[in-house]
Specification:
single chain, 571 residues, mainly beta, Immunoglobulin-like, 5 domains, 7 helices, flat, Carboxypeptidase regulatory-like domain-containing protein, hydrolase, carboxypeptidase, carboxypeptidase activity, protease
Length: 571
């Protein structure tokens, strides 16, 4: 019994000791999580990145990247880390060039084809002279890049290709030097009392010797100054301060910068070229009076109305647009007021009717262009009336036999119809029109002004015939024209292709005609080397013959068609 009590006491003591050890041991430290990732396709713009995850030291497992930012003061800003990979297509191109043993036309090494697919926002520990990027967990890759920027426009850029592609451990990009901002401080002289906002367009003037080095900085400049880089890429003006300085930095460290000053009215000066020096901000002053010796350009207010014809027909809901700007509505009665229209140059407007889909013929075009041309008397408010035309209609009629002929000799996209108008000299010229509307067996064609018209009906680019002539007057009465049957005397033509006296089957023939706006047609030669074209009425017959991938023969076959009805092509 005494032995059992002793053993029980020992067991209790052991259990108490184990429990105390478990309570006193330190909690395990979980490994740091990798920083969040945001997708950014290279050259597509500025990435949106989640906040960074702080890391305490470099853990033993995984692959971790660090870099040192050298600077003149403690780092304040943001940093990004990217792993660059080589696409399968780029790798295949590189290997194919190597097999062909030809001089490479691209980069000097395969790793230069690697592109960053994802960027990671990296933590930076500031130091007295710069800071330390990371450690940031990265995947195994053939190439790594780091970029960082501070609010004043100073940027850092690093590019590293390891000797062997690492899997674990540390990737240290070493010490990255700072690139102080390059740019200008722009001041306007003589603009303070002028109402409105001046702006400037910018264009890079690159030095061929440094263009590669500058291009490496463009991704980080897009992060540091997205507005300025957007202005470069899209040729958009940047607004300026009239009574102070406008800081345009950081900019690409090019040889010079070309500037166009724009007044509040939109008038643009001649270009001015400003010399640039990498790492410095140049002071530039533009004299407004000297930039615009003929004046700043006044503006006027257009006040008027848009009418459909003489105004007896309703215009309907409509909008207007100036240049590439936004569309603004017209009043229901067509009235409008357009401010700030330049008084020194023509301005084009487009009016678009927002009418519902109509059954039958429309009253007029759905859109029409108007041009305001100012005069020396254009001041203040200018009253104008714009008239959209009302359609007249020319109707082409064909009998059953003529329609059958047209279908027999046409293949899509033919038949094609062209509107012709007789000019003051009596010549027929092709005029544009917006409506060719099939109506059963007929064709209705829209006209916008009186005149003498006919319709040219083409069954192919080299065979067409005109309708009868019709006189369209000032009234809006419908006018008819007719297409006669095809002249039986018109002979057919064919192309015969041979090579060394033997027929070439499957050669592709491309044929055009005397009217450039008509689309060409193509066909393949049969087993006898022939391609039958059908009737030819055009005075010009440009032909191309392709026996394989390349063009083997080119010429005009009109004379041969008239003479014998056969165009002989010997490859």
């Amino acid at each position: 019994m005494r032995v059992k009590r002793i053993l029980g006491g020992l067991l209790v003591a052991v259990l108490l000791g184990v429990g105390a050890w478990m309570l006193l041991r330190s909690a395990p430290v979980p490994p740091p999580m990798p920083s969040p990732v945001a997708t950014w396709i290279e050259d597509a713009g500025v990435p949106e990145v989640s906040p960074p995850v702080e890391t305490a030291g470099v853990p033993d497992a995984g692959l971790w990247l660090t870099a040192t930012l050298e600077g003149s003061r403690p780092f304040e800003g943001e940093a990004r880390v990217g792993a660059a990979f080589i696409s399968d297509s780029d790798r295949g191109w590189w290997e194919e060039e190597g097999r062909q043993r030809i001089a490479r036309t691209g980069p000097a090494r395969l790793e230069d084809l690697a592109n960053v697919r994802e960027w990671v926002e990296a933590p930076v520990t500031a130091s007295a002279q710069g800071g330390v990027v990371g450690p940031v967990e990265v995947p195994s890759a053939p190439r790594y890049q780091v970029m960082a920027f501070s609010p004043d426009g100073t940027v850092w850029w690093g590019d590293h290709v390891p000797a062997t592609q690492p899997v674990t451990g540390r990737v240290d990009l070493g010490r990255l030097r700072e690139h102080p901002p390059t740019g200008i401080r722009l001041r306007l002289d003589g603009a303070r009392d002028i109402p409105g906002t001046f702006s400037v367009r910018m264009q890079r003037v690159a030095d061929p010797e440094t263009v590669d080095a500058v291009s490496r900085l463009l991704p980080v400049l897009a992060l540091a100054a997205p507005g300025l880089m957007h202005a470069f890429e899209n040729d958009t003006p940047v607004p300026l301060v009239k009574d102070g300085e406008t800081r345009l930095a950081p900019l690409p460290p090019d040889r010079s910068l070309r500037l166009w000053l724009r007044t509040p009215s939109g008038k643009q000066s001649e270009p001015v070229e400003v010399s640039m020096r990498e790492g410095s901000i140049a002071q530039v002053t533009l004299d407004v009076a000297r930039m615009f010796p003929e004046g700043l350009g006044e503006t006027v207010t257009l006040r008027g109305r848009v009418l459909l014809g003489d105004g007896t027909r309703p215009l309907g809901t409509a909008v207007y647009r100036r240049g590439d700007g936004e569309e603004l509505p017209l009043a229901l009665d067509g009235r409008f007021t357009i401010p700030d229209v330049p008084a020194w140059t023509e301005t084009r407007f487009t009016v678009r009717r927002e009418v519902a889909e109509e059954e039958g013929r429309p009253q007029g075009p759905l859109w029409w262009d108007f041009v305001f041309t100012p005069t020396a008397e254009s001041r203040g408010t200018v009253d104008v009336v714009w008239r959209m035309p009302v359609y007249r209609w020319l109707v082409l009629r064909m009998d059953g036999f003529t329609r059958a002929q047209l279908r027999e000799h046409s293949e899509p996209p033919y038949p094609v119809y062209l509107l012709e108008r007789r000019d003051a000299r009596g010549d027929w010229i092709i005029v544009p029109t917006r409506e060719f509307r099939p109506e059963g067996d007929n064709l209705a064609v829209s006209l916008t002004e009186p005149g003498t018209y006919r319709i040219q009906v083409a069954s192919s680019p080299y065979a067409s015939r005109p309708s009868s002539t019709a006189r369209v007057g000032e009234d809006f009465a419908e006018v008819e024209t007719r297409l006669s049957p095809e002249d039986a005397a018109v002979s057919a033509c064919e192309v015969r292709v041979t090579r060394e006296g033997q027929p070439v089957a499957g050669a592709m023939v491309i044929a055009g005609g005397g009217i450039p706006s008509l689309p060409p047609v193509r066909g393949d030669t049969d087993s006898a080397g022939r391609w039958r074209m059908g009737p030819v009425t055009s005075s010009a017959l440009p032909l191309q013959v392709h026996g394989g991938d390349a063009m083997d023969w080119e010429g005009d076959g009109a004379e041969a068609c008239r003479r014998s009805g056969v165009v002989e092509v010997r490859l």
